[in-house]
Design goal:
heterodimer, A: mainly alpha, Helix Hairpins, 78% helix, elongated, B: mainly alpha, Four Helix Bundle (Hemerythrin (Met), subunit A), 7 helices
Chain lengths: 100, 168
Amino acid sequence: MVPIGHYIFLSVALLAIGIVGIVTRRNVIIILMSIELILNAVNINLVAFSRLVGSVEGQIFAIFIITDAAAEAAVGLGIIIAFFRNRETVLADEMDILKW
Amino acid sequence: MLDQGVFYFFAALAILSAILVVTRRNAVQSAIFLVTALLATAGIFLNLNAEFLFIVQVILYAGGIMVLFVFVIMLVNLDVALHQVQFNRQWFVALIVSAVLAAQVAAAIAVSRRTLYTVPAAPAESLEPNTERVAFYLFHNYMLPFEIASILLLVAMVGAVVMAKKRV
C-alpha cells in the first residue's frame, strides 16, 4: 500500500483546489462543482483510512457522503434554475437581492 | 509496485483535472474535466480494495450527478456569461484562506509525522468480500443513518421539483 500520507496529500490538494474554485469563481454552477470536488477529497481520506485500519466502516461513511452530494446537487441546481428564471443570471456576485 | 504506479497515475490525473475544472472559462468543459476527476477518484477507490464504492462512484457521480450538471448547463443560457469576467476580485481572501489551510496542514503533518507512518497497513483480505461487508454494516450497525439518508433523499427530491417548477 502507498504510504497513508500520500493519500492525505492528494485529499488536501483537491480540497485546496475546491476552495480556490469556491472563493474565486463567479459562475454558480462551477461553485457547485467545486463543492463536489471537496466532498470527493473527503471520500478519498475516508476510504484510505478504511484500507489502513482494515475495517469497512469508512466506506459506509463515504456512501453517506455520496448520498449527501446527490441531494445537495439536486437542490442546488433546482435553486439555480429557479433563480435564473427570475433574474437571468448565474453569476454569484449579481445575486444581491438581500443586500442594501 | 504496480499498485503504487496506478495510485500515482490516478492521483496526478485527479489533481490535473481538478485544476482544469476551476480554471476553464466554459462551464461545459469544466463539467467534462469534473467527470475525469471523479473517474480518477473511482480508480483510487478500486486501488484501495473498495470495489462497491468504485461502482457507486462511477454510476452515481460520473453517471447521475454529472448528467444533472450538464442538463442544467444546457438549460441555463451561458452564451452571455461566457463573455463576462469569470473570476471575481477576491484574490486577497483566497490568499488568506489558502495560507490558513496550508498552516493547518503543516501543523497536522508536523504533529502526526512520527506516528502516522508507523501504523502497519491491514492485509487486503480484511476488506474481502467487499460488497457483503458493506451491506452487513449498512443494514446492521448503521441502520438508522441509512433510513435517515433515505428521508433526506426524499426531501431533496421534493425540494428540487418544487424549486424547478414554473409556478409554485
